[in-house]
Every structure is written in structure tokens, then in C-alpha cells.
Amino acid sequence: MFQAFRPAAQAAPVVWALLARRPGDNAQIETLAAATGLPVVVKRLELRKGLEALPNLRRTGSLFSYDAATQDALRAAPPPDLVIAAGKRSAPAALWLKARRGSRLLHLGRSWAPGAWFDAVLTTPQYGQPPGPNVVVNLFPLTPPRAEAAGDPGDLAALARPRLLVAAGGDAAGLRFGPAEAAALARRALERQRDDGGALMVATSPRTSAAAAEALKAAIPPSGDRLVSIFGEDPNRYRDFLAAADAAIVTEDSVSMAADAAATGRPVEFFSLTPRRDGSGLLRSALGAIGLDRRGRRRPHRFRARDPRAYERAEDPAAGSTGPPRRGSRRSSPPPRRSPAGWRRKRAELRENHRVMPALLARVSTTSASRPAIPESRGCPAPPGMTAAGGLAWRR
Q1: CATH ID of 3-137, from 2.40.10, 3.40.50, 2.60.120, 1.10.10
Q2: Cα separations (Å) of 291 from 283, 285, 295, 300, 334?
Q3: pLDDT band of 233, cuts 50, 70, 90
Q4: What is the mean pLDDT of residues 110-114?
Q5: What is the topology classification, in CATH, of domain 154-275?
Q6: Is 83:53 a contact under the CB 8 Å cutoff?
Q7: What segments bear the compositional bias annotation Basic and acidic residues (predicted)?
Q8: Comparing 22-31, 122-131, 218-227, 359-368, which segment has the lowest mean pLDDT?
Q9: Is 345 helix (H, G, I), strand (E, B) or coil?
């Protein structure tokens, strides 16, 4: 399938693995690239300072946000047959390679651009990737195949069993992992150790903040039966701890660590974190308050008569109001945008509604005393024993 893009002297397709700053994304890229069984060339992407947040607006991609060394490396010949990338900042380079070098693209996680721009998108449910014919949704992220146990390192082999792995993540969308949560995680781990005996192995991730890591170290000081590995300070022993563990506690923010722990086939406990309102949540709330979604589009509005007897009250002169609910009232919503033809059809519908409304209201008034209470209408057929007027529901 790659013959059109490969030089004649090249025996097998070549895969480029575009690695950026996120270790979790890089681990999945390397896992998938190794699973292809093809020659793999690793390309590390370094961004120019201040350009990390640029949106991906061009189908043909761009190398503008990368430094000179990265641009030279991506322009080097021969071009790759397949590009595997992940994350927002890898997408421009991958799209540029597709447009300029004829490479095929496989993107992991969220595409951060229209999914149709890529040849394939391999994602998991938490990313919310829009569906498409080229989108594959896995239940868990990619994890490297579990190697056969070759014996634990000396310090781990000496630990008493059961060995409990404590895998700490960090802040995520809608979740907070700060010093208070780290202290709570430590209390839970110590409680498990008191109940079950054995040893603790604590490992943090790249997303664990310095304050949370300090709180973990203060609550679980290293000792003979307690090992602590802080990412960035100590050698990363997460994989060693994972292979030696008999059980695990994993914070709920990291799907990758949860998948790693579940792949061992050993008991896994998920530690719940504190919900938080981040900037995206506040933006969604603000847009929802003015009737827009997060892309700035007007939300579709529906007007439903929750209780048909509300029209009886509206027609009652003693209630101080006549006619159907006015536009802008609490029981009405602003209409969606329509074309002129759509407005003409809507006006015709309204004229017909006003023509038949008196008869419907009279029918509701004369039968409401003998009918049971009318449930909230959802646009469904009227319950048995009730007239169509009793299930009246309008939708705009």
C-alpha cells in the first residue's frame, strides 16, 4: 500500500515516530511503532517558545511552530511511508508530512484538528473524538506487551509480600490532585499496608505537581518496606514497581496507568480525586447561560408545555394574563435562526395553532376536573384514558 511513496532501493516501509513533550503520548507512539515490525525512525519535536498554543487551522499543516533543527530533520530525505503522532503539537508536523511528502498519518488520542484530515485516528473514550469512518475507539490506551519476569531487582526482591504499588497522577480536566489529595492517597495506602502487611512502592508521574510529590514524601517517608520514586528527581522506577507489584492503587485521572495496572491481571483500586471547575468548565457554563455551545453555535431550543393546564391559567382573566406565553417569558425560549422560507412556514403553523387553540383549551377545561393529574409531557403519546389534548406538547 506504500509502494507509491517509497524509493525503489528501499526494501520496507519506514515509520516515523514523532515524539513531543508528553511521556504518556510518547510511550503509546513507541509501543505502536514497535508493534508494526517495520524500521522505525524517532523524530523529536522541539517547539519555538511562545507558540505552544497555536490552533491547528491548516489542512496542509505547518512547521512554523518548530525550531530550526526540528524543521531541518523533518525535511530530511527519504520521506517516511507512515507517520505516528499524538497530541496537539504533533499534528501540524504530521499534516505537513502528508501534504508535502505523501506520508500516511496515524494519530493517537484526540486529533486536535478535523479527523478527516488524517488517514486514521486511534483514540479512547475520554478524549471525545468525533466519530468517523477513519476513527477507531479502543477501551484502553496502548500499553507495551508484558515481558516475561526475569526476576525483580535486588531491592524489590527483598520486599515482603504483598507488594502494593501506589501510582500517583496529577491534575486533569475536572479533577484536582494537590497536596490534600496526595495526603489522602498516602493515608489510604498506609491503611492498606496495616491491614494486609507487606510493602509499599510509590511512583509519581510527569503530571504530579511538586507540592503533591512533597506531600507524598512527607506522609510516606522512605524506609525498608516503603520505596518512593519521584518522577524527575529519582530514576523512574514505575515499570519496575509495576512488574513487582501484587496489587495497585491508581489515581482516577490517568487512563494510561489504569490500563498498565489492569494489564498485569492483579487487583487494582482506583482512588477518587476532588472535582474542580477549570477554565474550560467555566467557559462551558458561561456559554450555556447565553444559549451557545463551546464552539459559539446557538443551541437548538425547544418549547414544551410542561403542564397543559398552564394554558388554562394563561387564559384566565383573573390571573392577569391572556393568550399563550409571551416570547421572552420563563416558559418560552428565543427562536433559532431560520431562513425566510422557514419563517413563512412557521408563521403558517402559528396561524393554524391560534385557530385551533380555543377549541383545545375548551376541551382541556371541560375534562380536567374528571381526569387524573397530567404528568410532565415529553412529546409522547397520551397515556391510556386521556385525550390527545392532555398530552399536548409543542416543539420548536
Answers
A1: 3.40.50
A2: 12, 10, 12, 8, 9
A3: confident
A4: 90
A5: Rossmann fold (3.40.50)
A6: no
A7: 305-316
A8: 359-368
A9: helix
